Amino acid sequence: MSQEALASASGISRRMIVSLEAGNANISLGSLDRLAEALDTTFLKLVSNPERELRRIEEIMWRGKADASKATLLGAAPARHDTQLWLWSLAPGERYRAEPDPEGWHEMIFVLEGTLTLEFDAETQLVQSNDFTIYNSAQNYAYLNDGRKILRFVRTVSS
Length: 159
Fold this sequence. Notes:
Layout: H1 3-10, H2 14-21, H3 29-38, H4 43-47, E1 59-63, E2 70-77, E3 83-90, E4 95-98, E5 106-113, E6 116-120, E7 124-127, E8 132-136, E9 141-144, E10 151-158
Antiparallel strand pairs: 1-2, 2-3, 3-10, 4-9, 5-8, 5-10, 6-7, 6-9
Helix pairs in contact: 1-3
């Protein structure tokens, strides 16, 4: 597939695709999902070492501005498309703005430490330590740590 065709199919600019191929781009997780779909593969196959077992990936896939802010893909299990298990940490004041997943995708979050502020277009939800939430991730949303200490949560993404 040409860069132009991939850009058209994924909705990602050709310039971003060229930068990605050169290893010079910082792409969002949602954009990686769209690239995988355009390439008729899954997010996991796109970002994972094919020689490594998917049940235990343990790779950092996103880093925030603060060293303590990161998202680690822990592992995956088979589903219609994918099921992904993530361990997230956000430093105080850190925000991660997600792009909508394809229709049919959902997230389950369990907060380990701190309070997660989960922002949607129509509402804001606070998820305290030792509590959880489940929502349709085919919408705009953001994770925010409004607290004074590190926020840690486990996130499962499934389709």
